[in-house]
Here is the input.
Amino acid sequence: MDKTALYALKASIKHWRENLAAAKAGAWEKVVIHGDACALCLIYAQQHECGECPVAKSDIGRSGCRRTPWIEVMQSLRNHPADFGGAEQTTIYWIEEELKFLLSLLPKGESEELGAAERAALKEAIRIEEEARYG
Here is the structure.
Protein backbone atom coordinates (compact mmCIF):
# COMPACT_ATOMS: atom_id res chain seq x y z
CA MET A 1 0.00 0.00 0.00
CA ASP A 2 1.49 3.36 -0.98
CA LYS A 3 1.56 6.35 1.35
CA THR A 4 -1.41 8.09 -0.26
CA ALA A 5 -3.56 4.97 0.12
CA LEU A 6 -2.42 4.55 3.72
CA TYR A 7 -3.19 8.17 4.61
CA ALA A 8 -6.60 7.97 2.91
CA LEU A 9 -7.36 4.73 4.75
CA LYS A 10 -6.45 6.33 8.08
CA ALA A 11 -8.65 9.34 7.29
CA SER A 12 -11.51 6.99 6.40
CA ILE A 13 -11.08 5.10 9.67
CA LYS A 14 -11.23 8.42 11.54
CA HIS A 15 -14.38 9.36 9.63
CA TRP A 16 -16.09 6.06 10.49
CA ARG A 17 -15.14 6.50 14.16
CA GLU A 18 -16.92 9.88 13.93
CA ASN A 19 -19.93 8.21 12.26
CA LEU A 20 -20.05 5.65 15.06
CA ALA A 21 -19.90 8.30 17.78
CA ALA A 22 -22.66 10.31 16.07
CA ALA A 23 -24.86 7.23 15.68
CA LYS A 24 -24.42 6.18 19.30
CA ALA A 25 -25.33 9.74 20.34
CA GLY A 26 -28.46 9.63 18.18
CA ALA A 27 -27.11 12.40 15.94
CA TRP A 28 -28.09 10.59 12.75
CA GLU A 29 -27.83 13.77 10.67
CA LYS A 30 -24.06 13.63 11.31
CA VAL A 31 -23.69 10.09 9.96
CA VAL A 32 -22.30 10.71 6.48
CA ILE A 33 -21.50 7.78 4.21
CA HIS A 34 -21.35 9.15 0.66
CA GLY A 35 -18.17 9.27 -1.40
CA ASP A 36 -17.66 13.00 -0.92
CA ALA A 37 -17.01 12.27 2.76
CA CYS A 38 -14.55 9.43 2.12
CA ALA A 39 -10.85 10.17 1.60
CA LEU A 40 -10.47 6.87 -0.25
CA CYS A 41 -13.25 7.78 -2.68
CA LEU A 42 -11.85 11.27 -3.17
CA ILE A 43 -8.58 9.72 -4.28
CA TYR A 44 -9.71 6.59 -6.14
CA ALA A 45 -13.30 6.92 -7.35
CA GLN A 46 -12.57 8.18 -10.84
CA GLN A 47 -15.73 7.74 -12.90
CA HIS A 48 -16.72 4.89 -10.56
CA GLU A 49 -13.40 3.05 -11.12
CA CYS A 50 -11.98 2.16 -7.73
CA GLY A 51 -9.29 -0.31 -8.86
CA GLU A 52 -6.36 0.97 -6.81
CA CYS A 53 -8.35 1.68 -3.64
CA PRO A 54 -7.33 -0.56 -0.72
CA VAL A 55 -11.01 -1.49 -0.28
CA ALA A 56 -11.34 -2.55 -3.92
CA LYS A 57 -8.06 -4.47 -3.69
CA SER A 58 -9.21 -6.38 -0.61
CA ASP A 59 -10.70 -9.86 -0.89
CA ILE A 60 -14.14 -8.60 0.15
CA GLY A 61 -14.20 -5.33 -1.78
CA ARG A 62 -13.77 -6.55 -5.33
CA SER A 63 -16.76 -4.46 -6.37
CA GLY A 64 -15.65 -1.30 -4.64
CA CYS A 65 -17.61 -0.86 -1.42
CA ARG A 66 -20.65 -2.81 -2.54
CA ARG A 67 -19.45 -6.02 -0.86
CA THR A 68 -18.40 -4.40 2.41
CA PRO A 69 -20.48 -3.52 5.48
CA TRP A 70 -20.88 -0.04 3.96
CA ILE A 71 -23.73 -1.34 1.80
CA GLU A 72 -25.58 -2.53 4.90
CA VAL A 73 -25.15 0.89 6.53
CA MET A 74 -26.45 2.58 3.39
CA GLN A 75 -29.47 0.28 3.16
CA SER A 76 -30.24 0.63 6.85
CA LEU A 77 -30.12 4.42 6.66
CA ARG A 78 -32.20 4.41 3.47
CA ASN A 79 -34.82 2.09 4.94
CA HIS A 80 -35.10 3.90 8.28
CA PRO A 81 -34.35 7.55 7.61
CA ALA A 82 -35.91 9.65 10.36
CA ASP A 83 -37.81 7.36 12.69
CA PHE A 84 -35.75 4.22 13.10
CA GLY A 85 -38.35 2.40 15.13
CA GLY A 86 -35.82 0.13 16.83
CA ALA A 87 -33.44 -0.19 13.89
CA GLU A 88 -30.83 2.08 15.47
CA GLN A 89 -28.88 -0.82 16.97
CA THR A 90 -28.79 -2.63 13.64
CA THR A 91 -27.39 0.45 11.94
CA ILE A 92 -24.84 0.96 14.71
CA TYR A 93 -23.83 -2.69 14.34
CA TRP A 94 -23.14 -2.21 10.62
CA ILE A 95 -21.21 1.00 11.25
CA GLU A 96 -19.06 -0.93 13.72
CA GLU A 97 -18.56 -3.67 11.13
CA GLU A 98 -17.46 -1.14 8.51
CA LEU A 99 -14.99 0.32 10.98
CA LYS A 100 -13.62 -3.16 11.78
CA PHE A 101 -13.30 -3.88 8.07
CA LEU A 102 -11.34 -0.68 7.43
CA LEU A 103 -9.10 -1.37 10.43
CA SER A 104 -8.40 -4.84 9.02
CA LEU A 105 -6.89 -3.19 5.93
CA LEU A 106 -4.19 -1.37 7.91
CA PRO A 107 -0.77 -2.94 7.47
CA LYS A 108 0.28 -4.99 10.49
CA GLY A 109 1.74 -2.78 13.20
CA GLU A 110 0.55 0.46 11.57
CA SER A 111 -1.18 3.00 13.80
CA GLU A 112 -4.56 4.30 12.70
CA GLU A 113 -3.59 7.81 13.78
CA LEU A 114 -3.10 10.35 11.02
CA GLY A 115 -0.39 12.86 11.87
CA ALA A 116 -0.29 16.49 10.75
CA ALA A 117 2.24 15.82 7.98
CA GLU A 118 0.18 12.88 6.74
CA ARG A 119 -2.99 15.02 6.76
CA ALA A 120 -1.23 17.72 4.74
CA ALA A 121 0.07 15.17 2.22
CA LEU A 122 -3.39 13.64 1.87
CA LYS A 123 -5.02 17.05 1.43
CA GLU A 124 -2.54 17.82 -1.36
CA ALA A 125 -3.15 14.43 -3.03
CA ILE A 126 -6.92 15.05 -2.96
CA ARG A 127 -6.40 18.56 -4.38
CA ILE A 128 -4.28 17.19 -7.23
CA GLU A 129 -6.81 14.41 -7.93
CA GLU A 130 -9.73 16.84 -7.98
CA GLU A 131 -7.82 19.24 -10.23
CA ALA A 132 -7.07 16.42 -12.66
CA ARG A 133 -10.70 15.28 -12.54
CA TYR A 134 -12.48 18.62 -12.72
CA GLY A 135 -9.87 21.00 -14.12
Residues 48 and 98 are 20 Å apart (CA to CA). Residues 3-134 form one domain.
